Amino acid sequence: MRRNPLISIRKAEATSLNRIFAFNKEEVTHFYDELGYLMEKHKFIPSNIYNTDETGIATVTDPGKVLAEKGQRRVGSVTSGEQGSIITVMSAAGNFITPMFIFARQRMTPLLEIDEPAGALYTNSKNGWINEDLFVTLLKHFAAFAKPTQESPVLLILDNHSSHISLQAFNFCKENHITMISIPPHSFHKTQPLDVSFLWVAESRLWA
């Protein structure tokens, strides 16, 4: 490596086989062809182009330092392993809508909303991840912020999660001038704007 300054030792990132095979020229070209067609048809401006992404978070932070007797090898701290997720929506102009939090629980409690962002959505599901009903809830939250009209429609770029494909979501988007386009499956590590430019930083700095 001293002989070749262009080579350095880097820590490899884990990449599944699905991601490797899905990220191919044919799939990506088709996606950008569709995106180009929609851009030409609707003339979307940057503030009307949005991307949404969901990422998992721990609802309990790592335990901090505690006082313990000298010589004690192990010091325990009881915490919950409960997980949840947060859904972020951002425009190409850099505008955010308030996030949607999904907690893995049967019922919501106001305690979960203490010190959280004003205007955010607080919801729950069995596994802490989005489903068809919660996606429609997100769309309504999004439409209230973006205020799409026939003269000023919006584009929503998202992954092809099964929760995004429902008749209720399709009808809502059609009635509210929202056009959705899905990125190629298993390719979010390369084509999902929020994933490659924002969420990984937030995860490493805030939720690590």
TrEMBL record:
Residues 97-197 form the DDE-1 domain. It comes from the Eukaryota. One of its GO terms (molecular function) is DNA binding. It comes from Parnassius mnemosyne (clouded apollo). InterPro entries: CenT-Element_Derived, DDE_SF_endonuclease_dom, RNaseH_sf. This is DDE-1 domain-containing protein. One of its GO terms (cellular component) is nucleus. It holds the Pfam family DDE_1.
